[in-house]
Amino acid sequence: MCQPITNPVARSLAALAVTALASAACVEGAEGEGEGEGEPGQASASLRFGHTVDGAALALGTDTPHTNAAGNQFGVTRLSYFVSDVMVTLADGATLAAPGGHYLDHDTPETLALPLDGEAPAGALVSVAFVMGLPPALNDSGAFPSAPASSMEWPESMGGGYHFMKSEGKFIADDGATESYATHSGALGGVDYSFAVTLDASALALDEGASTIDVEMHVDEWYTNPTDWDFNDYFPGGIMMNADAQAILKANGADVFALGAVTHQ
Description:
By secondary structure, the protein is mostly beta strands. Helices cover 14% and strands 38% of the residues.
């Protein structure tokens, strides 16, 4: 049977020992609780493409409310295009991707949401990258047999495959008449005019769960920087057989896309 401690010094030492043991247990417990903390949860993501002109949301119509860098008044009646081989890279090196080609159409909202495969640890982003158009490995006639993507077929007489973009509308010509334009881009004569787009995403992050990353096409930027595009130089008529026009669109396209916000669900 344990005897009570009556010596004051012994009692003090015993109390200190108990306190020390309790403190050690608390620290050990806290360390145990901390194990696994700081490990990020899993994140998934999709891209959502949007379109602006002069900083405002694009509205399709036959009016000509916009002015490009060359001073042409214009409007947009159709905007459809392909992007391919999408990849989002996080700071830890993980990636989320949507391989292959993807048809996007301003007038068909469901085509503008592009889910990315898989999950990655939540965290800071580095970049969002994709190809504007279809690189040669994906640009095969018949690869997109179903409408509406099938409407993007490029004539076999010009090499086959698909249009990379159809941006169509009206503009006011130099003589004051309202004319139609068709900014149709694609491969021509064996030359690939698709191009890689890499957007800096270092200011953005994915939280745990599902997120949507907004990607914006600034439609007016197709017509400037480095070359101001005058609709009167190309339309009425067409540019599908015009290699110089295709090269200008590819060069101007470098500044067309930008990242918007990340929405966490």
